Q: What sequence folds into this?
């Protein structure tokens, strides 16, 4: 009897140990599964982070490209403005140089010289000088006297008669070239220096016009003299 009880006790102990081993094995398996489960779930999270990093890099590159393009456009605008400013400054300088040269050359007649009644557009004359009152060519006094012989009925060298003196005409026009231009334009009243400066001579404009046509214009058309020769003759007196 005691021997049977002992075997039963041993058998119960073995069963108890087997149950414990099974239980521990189950627990271990469950624990391992629990441990491995997060690792499996971490794989999508890592992939998502990589995609996010890639998107961020793309966005950053696009922003950098846009910033570079904006800077290039701004640089071009600045360069174009600098070029336009330089061109404007160069034009101003060129215009000033041209104006200075024209003033230095004392170029008085700035409109085309043509036959007709149009007034000659002129710049203000400088003050006359002894040099300006001389003839512009080799006009001799003898030739001048011959060309102005018929003019002397109305003009004298140093004093006014029916018309202004030759010296007054010289002082008003400043050079034989200026007087030549007025003769060539048709001797319009608006272009005459003496008549436009003194009401006394403007009243005699019609008489002056008549004398110009008979003594100067008609002779030029016949080829007996030129407008320039007549102007130089007056300045040689």
A:
């Amino acid at each position: 009897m005691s021997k049977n009880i002992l075997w039963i006790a041993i058998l119960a102990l073995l069963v108890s140990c087997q149950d414990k081993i099974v239980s521990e094995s189950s627990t271990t398996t469950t624990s391992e599964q629990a441990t491995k489960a997060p690792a499996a779930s971490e794989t999508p999270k890592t992939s998502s982070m990589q995609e996010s990093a890639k998107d961020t890099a793309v966005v950053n590159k696009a922003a950098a490209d846009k910033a570079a393009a904006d800077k290039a456009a701004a640089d071009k605008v600045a360069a174009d403005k600098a070029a336009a400013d330089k061109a404007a400054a160069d034009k101003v300088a060129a215009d000033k140089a041209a104006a200075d040269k024209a003033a230095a050359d004392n170029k008085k007649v700035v409109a085309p010289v043509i036959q007709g009644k149009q007034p000659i557009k002129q710049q203000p004359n400088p003050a006359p000088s002894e040099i300006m009152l001389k003839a512009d060519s080799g006009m001799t006094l003898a030739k001048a006297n011959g060309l102005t012989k018929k003019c002397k009925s109305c003009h004298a060298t140093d004093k006014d008669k029916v018309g202004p003196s030759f010296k007054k005409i010289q002082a008003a026009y400043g050079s034989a070239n200026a007087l030549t231009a007025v003769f060539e334009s048709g001797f319009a009243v608006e272009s005459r220096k003496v008549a436009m400066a003194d009401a006394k001579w403007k009243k005699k404009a019609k008489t002056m016009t008549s004398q110009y046509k008979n003594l100067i214009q008609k002779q030029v058309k016949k080829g007996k003299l030129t407008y320039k020769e007549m102007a130089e003759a007056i300045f040689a007196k």
